[in-house]
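Table S2 (text version). Query chain:
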Amino acid sequence: MNTKHLLFFILILIVSCLTTAAGAYPLTAENDEVGSALAYLASCQQADGGFAEDGEESSPALSTWAILAIAAAGGDPDQWSRGGASAGDYLHIVADETIAIDGTSETSKLIITLVAAGKDPRNFEGYDFVAFLQAKQREDGRYGEHIYTTNWAIIALSAADEDVSAGVSWLASQQNEDGGFGWTVGAESDCDDTSSAVEALIAGG
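Corresponding structure-token output:
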């Protein structure tokens, strides 16, 4: 999946919740709804470049979502600043924390964010996050232990133009009889993980 397709994919995810009528879909960065949402994100930015809820410190989890939104709206994270570090600068903090956590979904989300921000996930802060994520693939094709970790790994590696066919095959085999997907093998279907599974199957297709 190239950057253009990735950003379009992310934009659909972000703006769909803002759509009030079928005829208004999809929205663009010029729409008032998206503009006001971006203004809110700007108010949440901290001096270190990250994003947080009122009265809290910057959070890597919240900040990567915010940076994805900025990129999907056509913004440059390196230019987003409230007088201190930029949102792009904060990604360097996220990189170090991702290495410390060493989680499959965390690594996946960072790769997606780096690609959307125009950064190289194979060489960022001296780390090859693509290789780190690929190393988490098991013999049966899954990434990490669960369905949800595989979902996000497939999306991330597809964004980095890597072969995810084995992961897609394993994921497809985990679909429940009701059509949905659970968070892990044998779990009941839920909307959250079914949604990310559909995204992964499309991204890796």
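Notes on Table S2: The first helix runs from residue 3 to 16. Confidence is low (pLDDT under 50) at residues 14-22.
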